[in-house]
Amino acid sequence: MKELFQHAAITQDITVRVAVSFLPEQSQPDAGKWFWVYHIRLENGSDDQVQLKMRHWRITDGRGLVSHVDGEGVVGETPVLQPGQAHDYVSGCPLTTAQGSMEGYFTFTRSDGTPFEVAIPYFPLAAPATAD
């Protein structure tokens, strides 16, 4: 099954695509735990080599509580993308509410070391309603 990217943002010729899925098998609604997995594709449409250095996430739960998560690279990697190359990774997000959202930015550097920020598009986290 081919995954469809539902959300995308382009900043300075770098495209960030996001596909998000709710994982019922990792969630325990009765215990106040919901879990989503998201697939990110980074595409270098520029004429320069770039390297992902840092990430910044703004995660908002269904109550409006905002968490900021900063870190080096993504899933332990700081990929280098040549012009025309793409990099994919998968990660997850737990929440204590059945809905929320994520957005943020990546910090990349160009081949000359110049840093720049690339937007991660806003995407909703929404558990499907269950009919018992």
Description of the molecule:
With 132 residues, the protein is an all-beta fold. It has one domain: Immunoglobulin-like, CATH 2.60.40. The chain contains no helices and nine strands. The protein is elongated. The relative contact order is 0.27.
Supply the key terms.
Co2+/Mg2+ efflux protein ApaG; ApaG_sf; 9 strands; elongated; Immunoglobulin-like; about 130 residues; about 0% helix; ApaG_domain
Brief summary:
It is built from no helices and nine strands. It has 132 residues and is mainly beta.
**β-sheet strand percentage:** over 45%
The run of helices and strands is: EEEEEEEEE
Q: Whole-number average pLDDT?
A: 94
Please mark out the parts with pLDDT under 50 across 5 or more consecutive residues, or reply none: none
CATH arch. level architecture: Sandwich
Alpha carbon gyration radius: 16 Å
Overall domain count: 1
- Major beta-sheet overview: 5 strands, antiparallel
CATH level 1 name: Mainly Beta
